[in-house]
Amino acid sequence: MINSVKHTMIAIISIMMLTSCSNQQSLQEYYVDNQENSDFILIDVPTSLIGNNMSLLSEEQQKVFKTVRKVNLMAYQTKEGDTSKMQAERDKVKTILATDDYEELMKASSDMGSMRLYFKGEEDAIDEVIFFGADENKGFMLARLLGDDMNVGDMMRLAQSLEKTDIDVSQFSSMMEVFDSK
Which parts of 61-137 are beta strand (E)? Predict the structure, then answer.
């Protein structure tokens, strides 16, 4: 009887360990795996480079801005009309976002493409915000905001107020070429 209980417990623990280990690629691993891939444009930007005019922000805006540590940008542009490779890469990203504990915050579609906004963490203590924009023919762009205890409402208010400030976004110009018309 004791041996059968032991064997049952060992079997249960083994099954739990096997099912808890996932071979699913994380978004971070996807970024790292494609760092040297010339098909992608990757930019890592510490927030210190974005917010060189912090004195223009209110004390509350500065506090919200400081919850963001880094911005990772990745873009894939379709080359010479070959959309199949781009669609395969886009599908990998979609799979990761669907299976890696990201919660969808918003989605939109238009004739310019589709976009989705995801987050990871609690609503008032977000660790990661993901923007995923795609165009069926041109490519896709993925932006990650990494931070500590970011708040969705605070981030939205900060984004609205930043539109009125003088922030240098020239370092992102190569990313926007993904969606330029050809």
Answer: 68-77, 103-110, 113-122, 125-135
